[in-house]
Design a protein that fits this description.
single chain; 0% strand; disordered N terminus
């Protein structure tokens, strides 16, 4: 028998606050980001969280990476995958 453990995911740790539409358009066009984002499709929330955290790390927590990750988290909230209150 296997036991799955679900850890608490603190999305606010990865969320960087309000974003401008212009900045979102600018940074989400990145080919590297688009390729990375596609790898998240169909993965668990834990895997998404870990991957997004890793994206921030390998991109030195730069402004573009923060915007990309925040936009992704906002999209998950809009689609009901995570609670909107989590990302305020």
């Amino acid at each position: 028998m296997t036991h799955e453990t679900t850890r608490s995911l603190d999305w606010t740790r990865l969320h960087s606050g309000a974003l401008s539409k212009e900045k979102i358009k600018e940074v989400t066009k990145s080919d590297d980001w688009q390729a990375f984002r596609k790898t998240l499709k169909g993965t668990s929330m834990e895997a998404k969280y870990d991957a997004l955290e890793g994206w921030l790390e390998v991109n030195d927590h730069g402004d573009d990476a923060k915007c990309q990750v925040t936009n992704y988290i906002n999209a998950m909230a809009r689609s009901g995958q995570i609670k909107k209150a989590v990302v305020k």
